[in-house]
Amino acid sequence: MTRIYAFYVLSAAGVACFTVVDVVYFQTIGYSLAFVGIMTSAFSVALAATELPFAVLFDRYSNKLALQIGNFVRIAAFSLFFLNLSPEMLITAQVLAGIAVAALSGTSNALIINQIPTPDAKAIARMFGRLEYLGGAAAILAGLLGLWLFHIKPEFIWLGAIGLYAVATLVVFSFKDVDTAVDRIPWKRYVRDSLGVVQGPYTLVYIVTNACAVAPFLLWQVKFDMVSLGFIFVGFFVMNMTALVAPFFLRFIKVSAGRVALLASLNVVATILFAFFNQPVLIVASFLIHVGLQILQTIVVAGLFHERISNEYRATSESLVSMADSLIVAVVAPVTMILGDVWGVEWAITSSCALYALCVLLLLAGPMRRSQRQPRILEAS
């Protein structure tokens, strides 16, 4: 388990090394928010198109190979970003990055969740909380590295990411494939059972929750950069410190559809406040609240979703969800960035409110209406 955690931490650090300033980086080298939105859309389409094949590879054939492919492709993508040969090559790099994330995102979560002896909603949510702790701590340190590299030379952020992912790749070589019964399940039954996941009561809510924060998370750098470049790290630090602190509040959150609806409703308010506040202190405070609420909403919904999934279908089920929310992001991201160019960052950020409202409507029409489960209290990690 230690090596799995090490891989997760190195991966989180590799991402943080460039995401601390990536949108500002593309603006620095002369690209508009609309172009960044197009790149994000290309990333999301590639992710959606390749998510399921990698999940099947992970579940039925080789856990290790899926992760190795993802790391190698991601390093190739970072190399193209570093070279910055043309707009077309940047979009190609985003496509490769999408393929890499398809190989790594759902599979990484599945690899960790599959280690839980009794994977009920409570235990799974605690594990997601622990991952938030680890990822947040790694991201803060790697974000400092990325900001320092950006200050030296903007494109050096990609070299930092390459180095961290190279080490993560070495860790993967030490893994052993986990044998499951899934490779003995006939394909027809495997496909039928996997598709049965989409009929679960929390599937649509999980899909939309994952896509909800796309606008604030795409534009937070632009918002903080309106104050200063150094203020961007304040936002990055707040975002990742919140990831460390937010799981503590799980002890006060009941595992129920009603609590998810409450978190989504509060997120609407927090998103609007973050969009329109201009004073630095209020920007930080509203961003902190929004990030914390988003983390809690995601963790609780993930626990409810994964509770009904067996280990044999874990990566496939996660990938079906990721594939769907990536398609939503592929549409929402360019629209959001165009809104940012035309109407301003404030109105672009508030576009996420529609997705939070959709979460509430889905809960009112589904789990909150028919669920008979008794709420349970989550314990902190």
Automatic annotation (TrEMBL):
It comes from Microbacterium oxydans. GO terms for molecular function: transmembrane transporter activity. The keyword NAD does not apply. This is MFS transporter. It comes from the Bacteria. The chain crosses the membrane at residues 7-27, 33-58, 65-85, 91-112, 133-150, 156-175, 196-220, 226-250, 257-277, 283-305, 317-339, 345-366. Keywords: Membrane, Transmembrane, Transmembrane helix. The keyword Protein transport does not apply. PROSITE patterns: PROKAR_LIPOPROTEIN (PS51257). InterPro entries: MFS, MFS_DHA3_Transporter, MFS_trans_sf.
